[in-house]
Write a structure and sequence with these properties.
Layout: E1 2-4, E2 20-24, H1 31-45, E3 48-54, H2 59-69, E4 79-84, H3 88-98, E5 103-107, H4 121-129, E6 133-137, E7 149-153, H5 160-174, E8 178-185, H6 197-222, H7 227-230, E9 234-241, H8 246-254, E10 259-263, H9 270-274, H10 278-284, E11 289-293
Parallel strand pairs: 2-3, 2-5, 3-4, 5-6, 7-8, 7-10, 8-9, 10-11
Antiparallel strand pairs: 1-9, 6-11
Helix pairs in contact: 3-4
InterPro entries: Rossmann-like_a/b/a_fold, UspA
Domain UspA: 64-136
Family: Belongs to the universal stress protein A family.
Length: 297
């Protein structure tokens, strides 16, 4: 574990990664909470919000949405409603592309066997195919519950700097007090057969070297994070040895994180359906709200 000081961050021009947000909604029991939560997020991000229902537009449905929006504190003229027929997955993918959406928000239930409408298999397909970042909400609330702790992956990957930068932006916008950057180290990297004190010492030294290596790499990434986004936020790194995806999901749950930020999955081949990707472990049992960061295509 390593705590990072403010000197690690640089003075850089501020940028807003999420200027257009799309919320794909169904008429479920959590509709009101999801719209209230999504509207707050759009307000804190200073973003335009598009509410999209894939299905028929009826007077009753339209009236229900208008009644909910009437109770939204930060609505203004930056909230619009769209109704489109078709298959949810295809319509959402096409709309995100056509409207240059930066963030797709979907309501989700925590456990895979309880997923409804946009979650489950559809969510899996969207996280692989959509052109933008995705936020899955499992605990929306009508009244604001402040975000306190954000966990973000720090694995060695070309997209990790973007995920960490977005984690700081979101933390800054939502007023979070702590960010933990989790470096998942595969157990096979310290595959030492423990037979005696000597082999135990060897394994311990190897683990410490790997932790130091990962912390040095993350420190390098942090230098590119704008200082304004890090102000007032306690930052620490945490090395974990175990199965990628599963380990960070378990850590986020134990640490009671309010948000988990992960790189978007890349591959879509047959081998990825046979052998689960890092993100699959998290999607099957969401530990908290999940932000999947994707570089804009």
């Amino acid at each position: 574990m390593c705590y990072i000081g403010a000197q690690s961050f640089k003075k850089a021009p501020l940028s807003k990664p999420f200027e257009t947000i799309l919320f794909g909604f169904a008429f479920s029991p959590t509709l009101k909470m999801n719209i209230m939560e999504t509207s707050r997020i759009a307000h804190f991000f200073g973003a335009k919000l598009i509410l999209l229902h894939v299905g028929d537009k009826t007077p009753d449905k339209e009236n229900e949405i208008k009644q909910i929006l009437a109770k939204v504190k930060h609505q203004g003229d930056r909230v619009s409603i769209q109704w489109k027929p078709g298959r949810p997955e295809a319509v959402l993918l096409e709309t995100c592309q056509d409207l240059k959406v930066d963030l797709l928000i979907l309501g989700a239930l925590q456990h895979e066997n309880l997923y409804q409408f946009y979650v489950g298999s559809i969510a899996r397909k969207l996280t692989r195919k959509v052109c933008c970042s995705v936020l899955l909400l499992i605990k929306p609330s009508e009244e604001r519950i402040p975000c306190q702790h954000v966990v973000v992956n720090g694995l060695k990957d070309e997209d990790t700097p973007l995920a960490i930068s977005n984690a700081f932006y979101v933390s800054h916008a939502l007023g979070a007090k702590q960010i933990t950057i989790v470096e998942e180290i595969r157990s096979k990297e310290v595959a030492v057969d423990i037979k005696d004190d000597r082999s135990l010492k060897k394994a311990t030294i190897l683990k410490e070297r790997l932790k130091h290596r990962e912390e040095s790499r993350v420190n390098g990434i942090l230098k590119s994070v704008p200082r304004e986004f890090a102000q007032g936020i306690k930052v620490k790194t945490q090395s974990i040895f175990g199965k990628r995806g599963y380990s960070i999901g378990h850590y986020a749950q134990v640490a009671r994180a309010d948000l988990l930020v992960m790189n978007a999955p890349k591959k879509t081949g047959l081998i990825d359906r046979v052998f689960p990707h890092d993100i699959e472990y998290i999607l099957s049992d969401l530990p908290t709200d999940l932000l999947i960061v994707r570089k804009k295509i």
